[in-house]
Hints:
Bound molecules: zinc ion
Distance between the termini: 82 Å
InterPro entries: GlcNAc_PI_deacetylase-related (IPR003737), LmbE-like_dom_sf (IPR024078)
Largest sheet: 7 strands, mixed
Protein name: PIG-L deacetylase family protein
Organism: Maribacter cobaltidurans
Amino acid sequence: MKKTSIVTNTIFRLSAFAFIIFLLVGSTCLAQKPYEGKVLLAVFAHPDDESTVSPILAKYAREGAKVHLVIVTDGRYGTNDFHDHIAGETLVATRKKEMKCAAELLEAELIHLNFHDQLRAAEGYDGHVPHAREMIKQLNEIVNRLNPDAIITWGPDGGSTHMDHRLVGASVTQVYLSQDWNKPMDLFYYGTPSDAIDDPEGKILRGQAGKYLRTKVSYTDQDLEKAAKSYRCHYSQIDPMLTEENFMERKSKNGKFVYLRKFEAPKNDSDSVFGNN
Ligand SMILES: [Zn+2]
């Protein structure tokens, strides 16, 4: 073989090699998920509460974020007309297992705390308040440890006015407000647009004006299917006749979105309660 053809051949091989490397690196870059490195923390009161936002938990996990799910209570009082469970420790064990199943399907890292369902409300001030204080301290430890980029929790309506829901949302808010976090960290509340609620009482109890629910996170059919499968894990809480299709239909009745209200801090100091708009 002539010297020139050896050189040409070598150049061709090197170019081909470089081109393959370029393709490999390029495809790796393209394959990188959009939220790789981001940390999302969702905090809810009971096993199955996460189903309010589960399609977007599945979405963010799919898009590369590390999703942590904190469930505060043990669900010991989760009896209902569909099953004949008895409130107490056996039901706690069942619901822990169900919650684990649901979190795994959503690809969320589960932290299931051991607070009593209803946060010892029946025990009055001396039973409830120390329990609620301990909850704030444990949530504070979790937020400090996980250092999330975004947090989602219950808003003041608590979805159903359930006291545990509202107190978990308020406790997460207290943790958030208690210090100046050393990185950008956003807090979001799950919300239902008043326009999507038909009954007037429901609008008052849990509706939110559209102008507050400005974070409208879309999700795919695939995310919704995952959410439906995950919901089925909470077998002790659901009507055995409810199918995954029923869940998906109900969930996406007003479009494939989860509405959130972002907590906004004032941008400027002020010396009056008036004229701050
Ligand atoms: Zn609940």
